[in-house]
């Protein structure tokens, strides 16, 4: 997956964020969202290993070994940051105090449910905080490439991978499309510049309706 | 009351078959000096390790695996160490996987006298297998029992001579929860200061939870 | 994001029939300025109050009783206010009594997405009546459901402009727990400082829990 | 009840404490224990409203309105004290991190179970932290006058008052007697100077065996 595609997805996700909201970023593409917020939008990052007020990646000489995000990558501390124990951090998450979680996905099903933690045939040995974020965050955005590296579809009628939760995500954002999850089904609300409803129909394995919105929280120009 | 001792003295408390809780999120906030000493401790055999991860290959808790000290691992994310995956496939270690929040809450419950609790996390997934489910206000919840340790190895920044602990940044993570949940709590710290030097409002682990203090020897992962 | 407002503006969030959590252990750590404003708020009728006590006669939350604002009180120790006893005997207020630790844990559970939990406290006593019992490891436990509020009125020492809160001594008590468990959280503070002035390690209530800040007017109980 | 009786009971209780242990003191006679510790014994006081390291009653001009014990009385802060939220405080208590709780009693039954929170015929409107301490503290000592103010017996076969927990206390200390609770029954282990086994038998409504110990953790002289 080219980095420019990841950035494009991150920008499309960022256009859905509101100034001041509390956001938890998953590993991978979601991590890029913080660097691509629209002008005038500032969010507060919570990381489930016990911090509110995560700042940008530090320069090499400013790395603090005691300061990492949930991806175990070095981060910095913004003024007003605070630290707390894991039980308190997940209390925040399960207790619906995080406004938006942005998570990567292996697959998504036609109900908007996400599979992002386990691959069939491999031993199940890692889950981390994904399940907690899915049941707890007020809104969940899946940020993913439209197709897998092998060209297979990631948005499918039924996932081949185990689900991460029975709760659907609220929004699915790819480099081609943005789907809202409504009434148990997918609604295509935005088509990326250079893509088309036809391409999306051909490359999406789950049924969806189309109800394009002129702008997804920000002018179309701003999200490219 | 707390005793200040060497890593070896502290780790002499570990008995074969013990459940040992180990703080840290990956290597951050992990008690690396104590983990190195655990590897040398006679009693450290047939252990159940409660920790978010089992380190990385040959680093942190990852050192225990090739030394065959671990019978079972309870945590949330072992895939960061491929040797765990391999040892599990060879049938050498048993693994209990919990969502990270359920892991943290189980440890807190173990320390706080909670008999069991219900969480939505994991309901309807493969991790719900074998767990009791209950519908509360129309939502599916899973019953989770607490985790307790025989010994907890934790990492803090500063201790005072009573054993009060203060943490630094994201190195806090599971450490304060584990301090409450084990019979014997051994804390590795950067510095031991006089009583009264820590702010009463920033002591995250009051001394009644702590049994032994060990000065960090700056062991690298 | 947090807004700094007057007591009256903040209390306009209270609606008839609301569940209002109020911090404090007796009058210590009680948000007395907010309580005085609650008495003047139009919406403050038919309330369920969650608080350890209902103040003392005519003091703190005790002021709400003669004003007939309280339909139900949930707490652990109402006998410090004989007017509660009298109002209860006259059938004017409903009372739900919980052991103090179960009260605190229920509030924490309400804020932490716990569906219910089991405690030994109260098993085999009159307070077990109507509660589900479960034997865990041979001991009797009671099932307890979480408490949540529409509004929480809490008291802290310092806030920064983001809404992070730091507490002072035993005035902390129920305040940080209640900050997590209500839809709208209003904090009365002695001082509002610039962002960055509070130590990140002593912020006991991170700002994401707080909606409104009100400067304490030093209302006496 | 005369203050000198309360002090005598407090001293008899204090003789059972060990240097360094974590102690929670109930309201009334138990509060006096802190001031009557034997030489060389120093305990650490936890108060359930959220403090470890409670110091003595301050002088009037040193009273801090933000610093009280569970009886809502002013206290002071010892070096090394810490503060925590109510949920954390009761986590400590229920989780067996408090070594000894010393509680007052309305009545005690022949199994050593305590009634100290509710009076029959009166509405049940206060319980506080008594039930939590009874199920959570590693050891519970009941500190009480041998007889009620009206002269009635407080240690009885079956209490007329509702029990505070089904867990028995470990030790019952009055101005006349000290009973250990063993194998579900009471054992008289100490008779106060000036009292007698006969007086205790006449004034105790529950059966007990006698197995006097020469000293209860401290020389007899030290506890008077």
UniProtKB/TrEMBL annotation, chains A, D:
Alphabetical UniProt keywords: Transferase
Organism of origin: Conexibacter arvalis
Entry keyword annotation includes Oxidoreductase: no
Coiled-coil segments on the chain, per record: none
Gene Ontology molecular function terms on file: succinyl-CoA:3-oxo-acid CoA-transferase activity
One Pfam family here: CoA_trans
Family classification: Belongs to the 3-oxoacid CoA-transferase subunit B family.
The protein's name: 3-oxoacid CoA-transferase/3-oxoacid CoA-transferase subunit B
SMART domains recorded: CoA_trans
EC number from the UniProt entry: 2.8.3.5
TrEMBL record, chains B, C:
Transmembrane segments: 20-39
Source organism superkingdom: Bacteria
InterPro entries to which the protein is assigned, alphabetical: 3-oxoacid_CoA-transf_A, CoA_trans_fam_I, NagB/RpiA_transferase-like
GO molecular function ontology, one term from the record: succinyl-CoA:3-oxo-acid CoA-transferase activity
Gene3D superfamilies: Glutaconate Coenzyme A-transferase
Keywords: Membrane, Transferase, Transmembrane, Transmembrane helix
SMART domains xref list: CoA_trans (SM00882)
Enzyme Commission number(s) from the entry: 2.8.3.5, 2.8.3.6
Name of the top EC class for this enzyme: transferase
PANTHER family from the UniProt entry: ACETATE COA-TRANSFERASE SUBUNIT ALPHA, KETOACID-COENZYME A TRANSFERASE
Protein known as: 3-oxoacid CoA-transferase subunit A/3-oxoadipate CoA-transferase alpha subunit
Organism: Conexibacter arvalis
């Amino acid at each position: 997956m080219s980095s420019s595609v990841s950035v494009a997805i991150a920008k499309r996700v960022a256009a859905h964020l509101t100034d001041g909201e509390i956001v938890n970023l998953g590993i991978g593409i979601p991590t890029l969202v913080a660097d691509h917020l629209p002008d005038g939008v500032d969010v507060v990052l919570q990381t489930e290993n016990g911090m509110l007020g995560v700042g940008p990646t530090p320069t090499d000489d400013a790395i603090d070994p005691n300061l990492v995000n949930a991806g175990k990558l070095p981060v910095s501390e913004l003024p007003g940051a605070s630290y707390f124990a894991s039980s308190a951090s997940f209390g925040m998450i399960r207790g619906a105090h995080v406004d938006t979680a942005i998570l990567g996905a292996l697959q998504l099903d036609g109900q908007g449910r996400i599979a992002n933690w386990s691959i069939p045939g491999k031993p199940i040995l890692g889950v981390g905080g994904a399940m907690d974020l899915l049941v707890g965050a007020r809104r969940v955005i899946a940020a993913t490439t439209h197709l897998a590296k092998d060209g297979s579809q990631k948005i499918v009628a039924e996932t081949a991978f185990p689900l991460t939760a029975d709760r659907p995500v609220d929004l699915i954002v790819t480099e081609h499309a943005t789907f809202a999850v409504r009434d148990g089904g997918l609604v295509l609300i935005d088509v990326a510049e250079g893509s088309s409803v036809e391409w999306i129909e051909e490359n999406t394995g789950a049924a969806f309706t189309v109800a394009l919105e002129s702008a997804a929280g920000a002018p179309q120009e701003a999200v490219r | 009351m707390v005793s200040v001792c060497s890593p070896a003295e502290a780790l002499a408390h570990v008995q074969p078959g013990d459940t040992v809780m180990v703080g840290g999120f990956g290597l951050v906030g992990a008690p690396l000096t104590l983990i190195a000493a655990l590897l040398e401790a006679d009693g450290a055999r047939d252990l159940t390790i409660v920790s978010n991860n089992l380190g990385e290959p040959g680093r942190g808790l990852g050192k225990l695996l090739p030394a065959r000290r671990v019978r079972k691992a309870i945590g949330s994310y072992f895939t960061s160490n491929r040797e765990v995956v391999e040892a599990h496939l060879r049938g050498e270690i048993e693994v209990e996987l919990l969502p990270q929040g359920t892991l943290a809450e189980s440890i807190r419950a173990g320390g706080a006298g909670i008999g069991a609790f219900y969480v939505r996390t994991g309901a309807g997934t493969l991790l719900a297998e074998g767990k009791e489910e209950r519908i509360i206000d129309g939502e599916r919840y899973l019953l989770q029992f607490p985790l307790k340790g025989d010994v907890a190895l934790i990492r803090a920044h500063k201790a005072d001579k009573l054993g009060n602990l203060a943490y630094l940044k994201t190195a806090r993570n599971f450490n304060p929860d584990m301090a409450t949940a084990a019979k014997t709590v051994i804390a590795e710290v950067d510095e031991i200061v006089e009583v009264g030097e820590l702010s009463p409002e920033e002591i995250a682990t009051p001394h009644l939870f702590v049994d032994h203090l060990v000065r960090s020897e700056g062991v690298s992962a």
